[in-house]
Amino acid sequence: MTWIKENYGKLSLSVVSLIVAGISVWLILQSHSFEESFAGLNATTVKGEKLPELPFETLEKGLQSLAQPSEWFEPKGASLFISDPYLVQETDGEQVLVNPLQEGSKPIHPPVPNKWFQDFELEILNPNILAEDTDNDGFTNLEEWEYKTNPRDASSIPPPHILLTIAGEEKKPVRLVFQTVLGELFQVRALDTKPTTQNVQLGEMLKGTKFKVVSFEEKYEKRDIGGSQIEKNVSELVIENTENNEKTALVKDVITDVGESLAIFRVRGEKGEIRVKKNVEFTVRGSKYRLVKTDVDGATIIDLKNNQRILIPYDASETISQPQK
Length: 325
What we know:
This protein is α+β, with helices and mostly antiparallel strands. Among the domains are: about 85-155, no CATH class; about 165-170 and about 260-310, no CATH class; about 175-255, no CATH class. The protein has six helices and 18 strands. The chain has helices at about 1-5, 10-30, 35, 55-65, 115-120, 140-145; strands spanning about 85-90, 95-100, 165-170, 175-180, 185-190, 195-200, 210-215, 220-225, 230-235, 235-240, 245-250, 255, 260-265, 275, 280-285, 285-295, 300-305, 310. Strands 6-5-4-12 form a four-stranded antiparallel beta sheet, with no helix packed on it. It is rod-shaped, with a radius of gyration of 51 Å.
């Protein structure tokens, strides 16, 4: 060790000399294989051989595809990160896990198909979904499905008449009696209005009423009274309602009630009532209708848009007396 410390410089020079000698030997050996490594470059070229054609058509399609922007296709049904809903349903006595959004699956809310809920993004797992009004337009989701309207668009609504029920009928009697003919005058007695007795000509109004005298026909009938044939005066005085142009014949000495009845309608979801006279137009949610009649079955109205006759049922919760047959 003492010698190394005293001759450190000589030792270092010896080590470096050995390394240089090793590298020199390696270079000499590599020079011998140099010619062999590049021998292939001197190979004779065979003339007449054709290079294979490059697939330019494929390359062009690839370039066109790269030039187009990437498209995102939204997955149908569930989103990319949210699974389809699954339910446990009983099938052939077994509990089976089913996807209600799969085509042909059993309806969860019959008769509405499951796809309808998917199309309009409604909560298919909500047990009350058909009774709810998703777009707050006054119609249930079931009614929207029945009439093929959009349950998420308040401007897309079923026909408004389905909101109607009839609460009852209100009638104000107007009893008239045609009594006699006095020359060109006709004597009429009113039992419910004033004046009680008045003499009018053809074309004149009956005071206190909405009726006008329009025509007169003198008529007689033979009737068997006590075994004798007696000729009875059954002449008719025809009056006309100036509001709806409805005509009524007043037979001599017979009490005739020409009073108008009012149908009382309720509109679901709205306060108040609609009182409508026979043959008079009325409007519900922008649609026009006309009352035809009321009877024990309900009120018959006509949709003036398509001339369809519609029966409006009585409100089951009402206690107002209904007309008798």
